[in-house]
Amino acid sequence: MASAEIVPYPTTGTELPDHLRPYETEQALLGAIMANNENIKHVSGWLKPEYFGDALHGRLFEVMLALSRDGKRINPLTLLPYFEQDKALTTAETTNPRKYLVDLSMSVVSTLNPEDFARHIVECYGRRKVIEEAQILRDRAVNDRFRVDGGRFELTGEQAALQLMADGRGRLQEIEEVMTGGQPREGMADIAQRVLQVVEAAYLAQAPIGGITTGLRDLDKHIGGLFPQEMMILAGRPSMGKTALATTMAWRIAYAGIPVVFFSLEMSKDQIVNRMLSMETGISTDRIRRGDITSHDYDDLVLAAQRIAQLPLHIDDDPRLTPALMEARARVLLKSGRPGLLVVDYLQLMRSDVSAPGGNKTQEIGDISRDTKAAIKNLGVPGIVLSQLSRGVEAREDKRPQLQDLRESGAIEQDGDQVLMLFREEYYLERQGDIQRRANESQDAFDKRLADHYAALERCRGTVEILIQKQRFGPIGMVKAAFVGEAQRFDDLQKGA
Length: 497
What we know:
Elements: H1 23-35, H2 55-69, H3 76-85, H4 97-105, H5 114-143, E1 147-149, E2 152-155, H6 157-180, H7 188-205, H8 217-223, E3 231-236, H9 242-255, E4 260-264, H10 269-281, H11 285-290, H12 295-309, E5 313-316, H13 323-333, E6 341-345, H14 361-379, E7 383-388, H15 411-415, E8 418-423, H16 425-430, H17 443-460, E9 463-471, E10 477-484, E11 489-492, H18 493-496
Parallel strand pairs: 3-7, 3-8, 4-5, 4-6, 6-7
Antiparallel strand pairs: 1-2, 8-9, 9-10, 10-11
Helix pairs in contact: 1-2, 1-5, 3-4, 5-6, 9-10, 10-12, 13-14
């Protein structure tokens, strides 16, 4: 089911048959949700309150969605307070709201197939919209002969008629998208031809075609860039540079004129922009925060801020983010069928649309991962989703992360089209502290171990290993990149060296 929004033309209203306002079906669905709160997860992604034929039922469903997003139970007791503060819920039927809610909770005939109830609600909504649009088209066909602007004819009668037909087709298509879920009716021949064209273009150019560049050429060579509807998991332990790499990608992609929506649950908007100013100027984030800058630095920062202000980049730091809320907000900013990028920092901080508090954390993260992947597919853009790794990494001698280190859920590995993990050997070597001579260790052996330590530290300084642990359409492997620590920026290794 789709999330298309249909805004009606001004109209005096149209008589609609009663059977297209499925009162009993709507009651049954609301009752099924109260009987088993898990039922809302099957319909929350595509059923909207405005699809209900009864305004009271639509408002109740909206309240249920809000309770679910906040991780609260949905039952007569949790719904009752809304009747006292929401005039939209005060009707002739709800003069005794407690009895009304109890009766509603008992109206469910089956909790097995809530999607069947929802589909019938959407079907009736679509039919009502067709009737309304038909009436609007009839009225316009009778009355709109041409359009006048400032005393001059803007459209001829013929042009006005053609415009009317085009408007009608477009609005009926919007209704069709709601009814069919917005899925294009493509045959296998159309799909195969489109895929072959991409392959042909890649062959002729001797380079991957179709993916948005990550801003790192060496990484692009391995993964081909970022592709629509694919979710890249970017994982690592703290201080490995997950946010820095995601911000670097978002910053460079926005500079290419591609819209980016960056959901930051860990850092504030100001902190993200602070990092981007550092990326632009090379002035460390610490110095910018403390104001430890020269007049020349300040001028550079002003110019950098002006450049950043022009980027098609939107940062959302709402800590209450859920996958459904993320999709709704991103849909406003990312145009359907156009290049764009979604970034989430990071997955374990998101809230589930459906899970109740006190539930299984692994299941909750699995739900969030699955719903985030679905949102990325629905939006038709690539998604970079950051993920934390478990502490088990720190207990191993070789601290390079592995797939099993993904924190709290194997579903993350399953949902990701690519799984990239970051490893900075420099970080671990620096934190070994002063190297002490061991008991019974000869001076020569100690000197060699100390020399090896400093040689290893020098060899990996400013270098990050990007471990490609999973790639649905390509091989796994490793790419080295330069990490410019002061600027919190990633570069190709030869560029950053």
